[in-house]
Prior knowledge:
The protein has 509 residues and is mainly alpha-helical. The protein contains 17 helices and 2 strands.
Amino acid sequence: MTVTYTARVANTRFGGFSQLLLLWRGSIYKLLWRELLCFLGLYMALSAAYRFVLSEEQKRYFEKLVIYCDQYASLIPVSFVLGFYVTLVVHRWWDQYLCMPLPDALMCMVAGTVHGRDERGRLYRRTLMRYAGLSAVLILRSVSTAVFKRFPTVDHVVEAGFMTREERKKFENLNSSYNKFWVPCVWFCNLAAQARREGRIRDNSALKLLLEELNTFRAKCGMLFHYDWISIPLVYTQVVTIAVYSYFLACLIGRQFLDPAQGYKGHDLDLCVPIFTLLQFFFYAGWLKVAEQLINPFGEDDDDFETNFLIDRNFQVSMLAVDEMYDDLAMLEKDLYWDAAEARAPYTAATAFLLQQPSFQGSTFDITLAKEDMQFQRLDGVDGPLGETHGDFLQRLLPVAAGTAGGLLGRRLSMLLRKNSGVSEASIVASCACATAPDGAAQDCSCEDPLLDPGLREPEPELPAGPELPVPAPGPAAEPFTLVPMPGPRGPAPPWLPSPIGEEEENLA
């Protein structure tokens, strides 16, 4: 069973992890104590032979061998090779857990799409989820020794209720030499299609969503099969194992304490137990043991996945979700905070201090600036309010020219400026007036823009000189007339101007 210690390290405190060092189940001591005793026994045997068995000449030769092994043992890149290997194994271990086929999403989809409160509707829902659970059992008994011991044959699967005898006949009659964990998924699809034809699934969209969830479930089962099939390359595992074992084989000789009377460099102290060599063995060999345990998490080690527990849990909750909980709703009631403007759940006395802490508004929320630093800066060399500066720049860019396409664009731009500045349409119309002369001979029309200072406007460009039009001589028979300028060709509105401005122009015209 998985060793869980999360609650013990929920809060960081002094010596919090020291309590974990005393645990035995799932610990590194349980994994490594045999190798550690073996290494220490061999070391002490060599030390005793050097001190009490070898002759003086043999001792001198052994001392040279010790210095040689100690000098060249550091050439073995143990930490480099072992670090990459353990990182790869840990990532692979967690990815395998993410591929465990959990039926939670599938059972919610079955409960929401396969309808019918009668016995046949119930039979559809339970059978669909049983097929999903059967597919998970078939793949887990193929990759997990614990599940295989629980269901060693297909007969055990039938007796456990995951498969009927009729389904077993169809399963065994299917002639295929490959793993057939996918067969229940095909049964699931066929049964869902039949439910759609009978109207239990009301539309094709619901059937599509149901089959998509099944494909996700089946894909996880397939990934477990591939993880079991494709292991970490054997050469990588062999290199790491040989590197660790050869390094500590060299340490057995190279870390021996020599006679201080011989005056060898670094051998001024004579001890019987190599404390730091044992610690180094504990760390490196323990690292290798971690990789050995996590490389296949479907065994029966302390920290391997609890596959049998997951089978029981998944089967039970899936049947509850699609059977007893189908169409089972509590009476709708107003919640406790129905009339509250700001809903907030209450706090207990142990958590009341959280109410005194301000809510997080952003990392720049408390930054303060000087008043002069908060003023907007105008364009270089331009005085006056910021709005007039922008308006004058646009008028210079697009001068108003009557009787041309530019004149239309200028009028639309002027209306855009009026609209953005908050001037109403009534004030624009009131500012433009046409006065008739007392004798009725001519009209004097003028229109002043209330937003632009006449002194700041550019003079309108003069038309190019051309032949003058003949003017009839005044006389009693002559009738008064008015020259009307011919409008220029009106093209499409510029794409950067919004359409409501064009509509407003049409209304004013």
